[in-house]
Amino acid sequence: MTTLTETKCACPKCTCTVSLDTAIMANGKPYCSKACADGHPEGSAGCKKSGCGCG
After folding, report:
1. What's the start-to-end Cα distance of the chain, in Å?
2. Where are the alpha helices (DSSP H) in the chain?
3. What's the rounded Cα separation, in Å, for the pair 9 and 39?
4. What is the distance of C-alpha 31 from the center of its chain?
5. Is 1 a residue whose pLDDT tops 80?
6. Which tens digits make up the pLDDT trace of 16-41?
7. Distance CA 20, CA 30 (A)
8. 32 vs 8: CA distance, rounded Å
9. CA 6, CA 45: separation in Å to the nearest integer?
10. For residues 25 and 40, what is the distance between their CA atoms, to the nearest angstrom?
11. pLDDT exceeds 90 at position 45
12. Could you give the angle at the alpha carbon of 7 between the alpha carbons of 44 and 33, nearest 5°?
């Protein structure tokens, strides 16, 4: 569920919800981690949050 203070991470494969107060912003979009915000450069295997298989 998303609220006015939380939203889904902008990474297409990520399942995380991120607080807009603590999100890592890149290109005007909120991300849950630096790996997601950087577009998962080679060697970055996801955001490392429990159960999320992005990257």
Report:
1. 22
2. 34-37
3. 12
4. 3
5. no
6. 999 999 999 999 999 999 999 999 98
7. 7
8. 8
9. 24
10. 15
11. no
12. 20
